[in-house]
Amino acid sequence: MSEPGSGGGLISGIEWRKPSIRWGMRTAHVLLLVGLVVIGLGPILWLAKSAITPTLDTISHPIALFPHGTAWSNVRQAWSDVHVGRYFWNTIVITFGSWAVQIVVATTGGFALSVLRPRYAPIIKGLLLATLFIPAIVLLVPLYIEIVQLPIVHKSLIDSYWSVWLPAGASAFNVILVTRFFDNLPREIFEAAEIDGAGPFQLFWRIVLPMSKPILGVVSIFALLASWKDFLWPLLVLTNPNKQPLSVRLPSIESQTSLGVFLAAMFIACLIPIAGFLLFQRSFLRGTGLGGAIKG
Amino acid sequence: MNTVDQPGGPALPSERGPSRSYATPRRTPLTWIRGGGLSAFLFLLPLLFVFGAFSWFPIVRTAIMSLQHTNFVQAPTWVGFQNFRAVWHDPLFPVAVRNTAYFALLALVFGYPIPLIAAVLMSEVRKRRGLYSMVAYLPVVIPPVVAVLLWKTFYDASATGVFNTALGWVGLGPYPWLQSQQWAMPSLVLESTWANAGATMIIYLAALTSVNPELYEAASVDGAQLLRKVWHITLPQIRGVLLVTLILQIIGTAQVFLEPYLFTSGGPANATLTVMLLIYNYAFGNSLGGDYGKATALSLMLAGSLAVFSLVYLRATRSWSTR
Amino acid sequence: MKSTRVAMIVAVGVLLAIGASTAAGSTRSGKKVTISVASLIPGSTQAAIKQFNAQVKEFEKRYPTIQVKPVEYQWTGPSFAAKLAARTLPTVFEVPFTDARTLGDRGQLANLTPYFKKLPYHNKYNNAVIAEGTDAKGQVVALPKGAYAQALHYNRALFKQAGLNPNKPPTTWAQIRTDARIISQKTGKPGYVEMAKDDNTAGWILTTLVYSLGGRMETGTGTHAKATLNNTYTIHALNMLKAMRWTDNSMGSNFDYGWSDINQAFAAGKVGMYISGSDVYTNLVQAYNVNPSTYGVTTIPLANNKKVGVLGGGTLAAVRPDAKKAQLAAAVKWLDFFYEQPLVSKKQAIRNAKTLVANKQPVGVPALPIFNRTQYNLANLWIKPYINVPVGQMKPFLNGIFKQKLIPEPEASTQSVYHALDAVVEAVLTNKNTDVVQMLKQANAEAQAAIRQGA
Question: What ipTM score was computed for the predicted complex, to two decimals?
Answer without folding.
Answer: 0.86
